[in-house]
């Protein structure tokens, strides 16, 4: 216990030192308890902490924890970037939000003399690292130890082989950032690659002239058709496609779950409701009115989840393969599953009429929509029906079919009635309610793009979503109560910097955002309600989305800001997410429900490593899925160069404007040099490019017409020409009048739009233009093309 100061509050330095000594572990109550502060002093402590947050000395992490601004989690994924003057490795976090601090903290990697296998890293590697804060004269903030090397450095490029008539060929890189940077491959270095093959190439020492040279290292097969486009992302991100022989053997030897040791729920009419093209069905639901007179108007909801833990035991080959994958990856033409098909599409798929093992939760919900109690059960169930979202909704809307007709009264109506009750609790909780439509690419049988649709958001979707969220909360609550190791699904609140940026942006629209007290999703929802129906509604939704942090997995619970929940874990999809499998194992151990439980030897430190690893694999999957969609759309539009389209400005940077097309959702760039005959300034507050002379403004969310100028299908890159003239919304002083012009140093940070053709530009102006572009590239980038999002 730290001794209380004689003057009430201890010095600021003492409080900051205490926070630094307990990174990510302390809140206001912990500080008050440690310093022996009484109730009379706690109000002053809260005021002092608010001042420390305001001036950037500390920051809030979630609603309860207070940390240093650059605090890193104890376990994280880091990239080894170089060595210090003593030859020791230096690393930086693989994931770093530049809005919080311009430069990520550096980590000095300690390499023991006898490192364990797989824990020896080198420059360029990506590794799982355990870190602790240090005070270092060279500005090193952390000391770290490599736990596992996740990705070794390679001097290799992935791309498509294009043969030359005289032999040899060229590599067309698949990375959008390397678009246009081809490699030359000599005839003896092709390894018999054919035109259109996806290949990896080792770079050769440069000749000093001509194209860089490379040698084919590996061939992955032809991607000449759109049906194989997903192969590019799979190999580019090194997503494992093949399971080990041992894992396949375990899957093939698995037998259906027996009734022994389980409750018999086969007569309970649980049903699955999924997308029409779903290949696995791992969750089933049922609801009924609560007969208990003390809960009048309340309901009982059952959620049954496939018992994956029965088949995938800790330490088994199936378990090792699943952890490497972290999650399933979904492409328009294929799924790369976390588990072999024998498990995911057969034994653990809750198909109608077949007995299946499940881990189920029974939730009692009051008439006010709040969960009153819950209990978990290991059961044997039998699904009564498999429905699509549209099918279930059509039945409720008065258009039942042969399957849903008999289910309408006994099953579907009680489910929807229970959802109406649960929705009251959701409305009272008031989670973040962003309206960002999701597009889905539909393919023809030959693998080419048929169309891009925005599936209608139905009550059937909301029903399943709300019941799954309630089940996830119940799982987290039980494991917390039992004090067992747990991987949470967490979503931090926006940073002070992002909130300030959002407030400044909303001021430009005369939209109030008065933050007082705790930051809650309701503040954002109030803004979204104010702009509903306005021309800039879409714009505000996008900017609010970009102000949010990204959800992740962690053993430290700082709540889920977007869902407005104090504790939350993933429980409902163990077929496709490793985090859910860990939670299932924890529940089996907590309730002594039999085989497949979390081992007694499992430690929070090891689960922290798992959480860091699967957070990275989740982001890897999201990036691979997005890149594949970009490439498919670029293939689809490749023969429409010169056509005009309508879209919205989806991103504004110093490089130009990113445009999202209305009909396909395709993203492309309008380079800033093509915008006009004047300088355009990047206004970060307005999310806009503004002409210095005319005041013409191109702003995030504007509806524009564009012409497709270039399509690069392999890289998934599109380039547009802007056809819509910008409105003059910002007054500008004419040159030579009004306030003095900015200094030359400041003017040189501005980006210049193309005034004349490059070959007609005087040499000194050409040099100036390149200098300006270089200066702009060094500065902190603006709004990203895609923004950051949270996922429940």
Automatic annotation (TrEMBL):
Subcellular location: Cytoplasm
Reaction catalyzed: Exonucleolytic cleavage in the 3'- to 5'-direction to yield nucleoside 5'-phosphates
Primary location group: cytoplasm
The keyword Hydrolase is assigned to this record: yes
EC number: 3.1.13.1
UniProt entry keywords in alphabetical sequence: Cytoplasm, Exonuclease, Hydrolase, Nuclease, RNA-binding
SMART domains: RNB (SM00955), S1 (SM00316)
Enzyme class: hydrolase
Biased composition (Basic and acidic residues): 276-289
Keyword Protein biosynthesis set for record: no
Basic residues composition-biased segments: 732-753, 762-792
UniProt cross-references to PROSITE patterns, sorted A to Z: RIBONUCLEASE_II, S1
Residue span of region Disordered: 276-295, 731-792
InterPro entries, sorted: CSD2, NA-bd_OB-fold, RNase_II/R, RNase_II/R_CS, RNase_II/RNase_R, RNase_R, RNR_Ribonuclease, S1_domain
Domain S1 motif residues, every copy: 642-733
Family: Belongs to the RNR ribonuclease family. RNase R subfamily.
PANTHER family, sorted: DIS3-LIKE EXONUCLEASE 2, RIBONUCLEASE
Function: 3'-5' exoribonuclease that releases 5'-nucleoside monophosphates and is involved in maturation of structured RNAs.
Name this polypeptide is given: Ribonuclease R
Origin species: Bradyrhizobium denitrificans
């Amino acid at each position: 216990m730290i001794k209380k100061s004689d003057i009430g509050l201890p010095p600021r330095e003492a409080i900051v030192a205490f926070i630094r000594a307990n990174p990510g572990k302390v809140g206001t109550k912990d500080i008050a308890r440690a310093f022996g502060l009484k109730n009379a002093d706690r109000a002053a402590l809260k005021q002092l902490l608010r001042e420390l947050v305001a001036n950037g000395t500390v920051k809030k992490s979630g609603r309860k924890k207070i940390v240093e601004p650059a605090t890193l989690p104890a376990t994280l994924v880091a990239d080894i970037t170089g060595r210090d003057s003593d030859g020791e490795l230096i690393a930086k976090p693989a994931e770093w939000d530049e809005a919080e601090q311009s430069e990520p903290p550096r980590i000095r990697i300690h390499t023991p003399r006898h490192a364990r296998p797989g824990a020896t890293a080198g420059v360029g590697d990506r590794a799982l690292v355990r870190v602790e804060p240090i005070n270092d004269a060279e500005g090193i903030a952390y000391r770290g130890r490599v736990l596992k090397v996740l990705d070794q450095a390679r001097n290799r490029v992935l791309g498509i082989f294009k043969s030359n008539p005289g032999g040899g060929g060229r590599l067309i890189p698949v990375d959008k950032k390397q678009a246009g940077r081809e490699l030359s491959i000599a005839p003896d270095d092709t390894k018999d690659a054919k035109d259109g093959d996806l290949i990896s190439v080792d770079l050769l020492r440069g000749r000093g002239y001509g194209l860089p040279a490379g040698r084919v290292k590996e061939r992955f097969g032809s991607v000449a058709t759109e049906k194989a486009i997903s192969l590019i992302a799979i190999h580019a991100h090194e997503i494992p496609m093949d399971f080990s022989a041992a894992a396949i053997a375990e899957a093939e030897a698995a037998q259906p779950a027996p009734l022994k040791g389980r409750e018999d729920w086969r007569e309970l009419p649980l049903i699955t409701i999924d997308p029409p093209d779903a290949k696995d069905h791992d969750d089933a639901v049922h609801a009924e009115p609560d007969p208990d007179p003390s809960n009048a108007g309340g309901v009982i909801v059952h959620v049954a989840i496939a018992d994956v833990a029965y088949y995938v035991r800790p330490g088994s080959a199936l378990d090792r393969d699943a952890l490497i994958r972290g999650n399933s990856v979904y492409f328009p033409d294929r799924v790369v599953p976390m588990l072999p098909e024998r498990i995911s599409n057969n034994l653990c798929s809750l198909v109608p009429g077949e007995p299946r093992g499940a881990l189920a939760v029974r939730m009692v919900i009051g008439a006010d929509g709040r969960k009153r109690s819950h209990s978990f059960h290991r059961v044997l169930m039998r699904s009564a029906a498999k429905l699509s979202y549209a099918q279930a909704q059509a039945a409720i809307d008065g258009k039942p079919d042969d399957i849903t007709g008999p289910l309408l009264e006994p099953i579907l109506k009680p489910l929807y009635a229970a959802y109406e009750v649960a929705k009251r609790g959701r409305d009272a909780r008031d989670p973040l309610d962003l309206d960002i439509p999701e597009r889905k690419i539909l393919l023809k049988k030959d693998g080419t793009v048929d169309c891009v649709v925005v599936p209608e958001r139905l009550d059937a979707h909301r029903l399943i979503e709300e019941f799954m969220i309630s089940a996830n909360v119940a799982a987290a609550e039980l494991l917390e109560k039992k004090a067992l190791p747990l991987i949470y699904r967490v979503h931090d609140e926006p940073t002070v910097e992002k909130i300030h940026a959002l407030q400044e942006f909303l001021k430009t629209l005369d939209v109030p955002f008065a933050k007082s007290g705790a930051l809650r999703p309701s503040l954002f929802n109030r803004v979204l309600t104010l702009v509903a129906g306005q021309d800039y509604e879409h714009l505000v939704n996008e900017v609010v989305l970009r102000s949010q942090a990204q959800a992740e997995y962690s053993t430290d619970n700082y709540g889920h800001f977007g869902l407005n929940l104090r504790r939350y874990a993933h429980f409902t999809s163990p077929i496709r997410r490793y985090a859910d499998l860990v939670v299932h194992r924890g529940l089996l151990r907590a309730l002594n429900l039999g085989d497949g439980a979390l081992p007694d030897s499992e430690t929070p430190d090891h689960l922290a490593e798992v959480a860091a690893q699967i957070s990275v694999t989740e982001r890897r999957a999201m990036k691979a899925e997005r890149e594949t969609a970009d490439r498919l759309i670029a293939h689809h539009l490749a023969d429409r160069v010169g056509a005009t389209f309508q879209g919205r400005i989806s991103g504004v940077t110093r490089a130009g404007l990113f445009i999202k097309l209305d009909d396909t959702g395709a993203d492309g760039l309008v380079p800033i040099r093509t915008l006009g005959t004047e300088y355009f300034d990047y206004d970060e507050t307005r999310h806009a490019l503004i002409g210095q002379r005319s005041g013409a403004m191109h702003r995030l969310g504007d509806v524009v017409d564009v012409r497709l100028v270039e399509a690069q299908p392999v890289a998934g890159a599109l380039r547009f020409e802007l056809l819509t003239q910008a409105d003059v919304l910002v007054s500008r002083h004419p040159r030579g009048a009004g306030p003095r012009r900015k200094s030359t140093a400041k003017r040189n940070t501005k980006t210049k739009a193309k005034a004349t053709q490059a070959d007609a530009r005087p040499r000194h102006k050409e040099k100036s233009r390149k200098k300006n572009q270089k200066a702009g590239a060094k500065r902190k980038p603006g709004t990203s093309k895609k923004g950051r999002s949270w996922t429940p």
